[in-house]
Amino acid sequence: MSDLSSLYQEVILDHAKRPRNFHMIPDADHHANGYNPLCGDKVTIYLTLVDDRITDISFQGSGCAISTASASILTETLKGKTRAEAEAIFEAFHSLVTGQPVKSTGAPALGKLAVFSGVCEFPVRVKCASLAWHTLRSALEGSPTVASTE
Amino acid sequence: MATVREYVNAAIKEKLSEQGELQARTFDVRKIREDFPILKQKMHGKPLVYLDNAATSQKPQAVIDALLHYYTQYNANIHRGVYLLSERSTQAYEDARVKLQRFINAPDPREIIYVRGSTEGINLVAQTYGRQHLSVGDEILITAMEHHSNIVPWQMLCEEKGCLLRVGPINDRGELILGEFAKLINDRTRFVSVAHVSNALGTINPVKQIVEMAHAKGAVVLVDGAQAAPHLKIDVQALGCDFYAISGHKLFGPTGIGVLYGKAKLLESMPPYQGGGDMILSVTFEKTLYNHIPNKFEAGTPNIAAAIGWGAALDYLTRIGMENITSYEHALLTYATEAIGQIPGVRLIGTAREKAGVLSFMLEGIHPHDVGTVLDQEGIAVRTGHHCAQPVMERFGVPATVRASLAFYNTKQEINALAAGLEHVKGMFA
Q1: B113 CA to chain A: closest CA distance, Å?
Q2: pLDDT tens for each residue of B110-148
Q3: Domain B322-429, what architecture?
Q4: How far is the C-alpha of B215 from the C-alpha of B209, rounded, in Å?
Q5: Structural domain count, chain A
Q6: Which residues of B touch A127 (CB under 8 A)?
Q7: Is the CATH number of domain B90-318 3.40.50.2300?
Q8: Cβ-defined contact of B373 to A122 (cutoff 8 Å)
Q9: What is the pLDDT of residues B46-84, one digit of tens each?
């Protein structure tokens, strides 16, 4: 039986109430929209890349506590990372929230993202946690379609 | 020797009498709850508080038994066999059709078409009557509170035929603005399709009046009764509508069955929906003759078991009495509206003067999805999201709502549990 406190940890509740980097980047060279049709979560990720390094990253949108916190911590974690590092963290995060074993060698440190370890016990909420990440990937790829978790 | 009909009815009656007689005279919700085995279930170790009846209803033992009985005693394909089992199953299937006819006071059982659900019923009308009668420049009128199943088939038809889709607006209470709706009915309006009860808001529409207005301008009317039939006594003759769609699994029957009622004259003039077996009188490669109604619209082997199971549900409901159900639920909804509405931070969505079964709301600063997850842990099942009514969500400026929806086996204690659950949610996200 899953305990709610494993899902709604303090860090998550904090980021949900006071999301970091919650603004637009007007001259962002990359951005993408994400939408979770299951519950109506919407997120837009804005990126500025210089020589493949994320120099600025922010988000806008509305959604549940999990999706908001995920986007907020994502922006904190990825600022200053390279494209390749961001991809690697995406893979590790995805493994974490879907309850798969994270590769022990060469896997990036998840840092604060580890607070989402409880999400895998609430399968319905996995899509909430991963929406921002799928959207980020769209933004990095420069893909024109709206990202979703489907 | 007993006739086939007597055999089948006796078997079903035997099951019903154990439960039905007790409730025949008085509405005793505790006794009623004993008829629904799933209500003893737990979610996360807590007693189940099932408040998602608008999504699907729970089934009385009589329905579960009817399904079991069918598959163990007389499962056989209908309309085709000359052996006893086939006669029994055909009889039970057709008996259920008559029960449906009586349940909605339709004049003729031939006007009862079995479909997969109310969504299929609406699509059937759009694809047969709609394709046949509508052309470029014609108008189809719906309302702003419709479920996607009563929007998308008409959008598809409009795209195909070059028709115009008009939408009757709703006010901030979630009521249809009848004056504006009336203005939208003009000489080009060929079809009107409205919900009897809104699944997202609970609003009861003045269907009889809408039908009169539409008929005065020569337009045909379909009523989406998916959310109405479980709560209100339906009388299609009194309403005067041309088509009425009902969902089986929302009306305490199994999934995968529904009914489209249509006036015989209309159904007879419409082309068939799906082609195949049973909907024909004769087939050659030169010419095929279609069957009479209702069979013309029932191609292939139907969901026989579900129809028979649904018949058992209708017997059960008839014994309790729909009027008793309506009045019990009305009192419960009033209680729930008060109990939930007075919690600080709650914003009720859908406060029409005439409502049935549904309480939609927002909890300030907390996303419905988070509310639903916390309530789930308390054993409380509510729905969170757009409820297949995205235009309604947009009208009220919300991404989603929490929706508690009632049936006649819900209790005040369960509403109290919901209220306590919401206080718990508030505490967590404070």
Answers
A1: 32
A2: 999 999 999 999 999 999 999 999 999 999 999 999 999
A3: Alpha-Beta Complex (3.90)
A4: 10
A5: 1
A6: none
A7: no
A8: yes
A9: 999 999 999 999 999 999 999 999 999 999 999 878 999
CA distances from residue B392 to B143, B144, B164, B173, B297 in whole angstroms, order as listed:
10, 7, 20, 12, 32
Distance from the Cα of B372 to chain A's closest Cα (Å) equals 11
DSSP conformation class of B275 = -
Contact B429 A40 (CB under 8 A): no
Residue A114: inside a domain, yes or no?
yes
CB atoms within 10 A of CB A100: 10
Residue in A closest to B43 by C-alpha: A1
Q: Do A128 and B385 touch (CB under 8 A)?
A: no
Q: Is residue A56 part of a domain?
A: yes
- Which helix H or strand E contains B6, and what residues bound it? helix B4-25
Within 8 A of B45 by CB-CB distance, chain A residues are 1
Q: By the CB < 8 Å criterion, does A143 face chain B?
A: no
DSSP characters for A62-113?
E--HHHHHHHHHHHHHHTT-BHHHHHHHHHHHHHHHTTPPPPSSSPPP-GGG
Measured CA to CA, the distance from residue A4 to residue A12 in angstroms comes to 12
Q: Provide the shortest C-alpha distance from residue B154 to chain A (in Å).
A: 22
Q: Catalytic site residue B388?
A: yes
Residue B364 near chain A (CB below 8 Å): no
CATH code, domain carrying A55: 3.90.1010.10
Q: Which domain holds residue A96?
A: 19-141
Note whether residue A11 is domain-resident: no
Local structure of A115: helix, strand or coil? helix
Name the closest residue on chain B to residue A61, using Cα atoms: B399
Confirm whether B90-318 and B322-429 share one CATH topology. Answer: no
Half-sphere exposure in the Cβ direction for B154 (13 Å, CA): 24
Q: Are A12 and A49 in contact (CB under 8 A)?
A: no
What was the ipTM of the complex prediction?
A: 0.85
Q: Is residue A6 part of a domain?
A: no
In chain A, residues with a C-beta closer than 8 Å to the C-beta of B374 are 4
Query: Which of A94-108, A121-135, B76-90, B334-348 is predicted least confidently?
Result: A94-108
C-alpha–C-alpha distance, residues B76 and B304, integer Å: 9
Domain boundaries defined on chain B: 90-318, 322-429
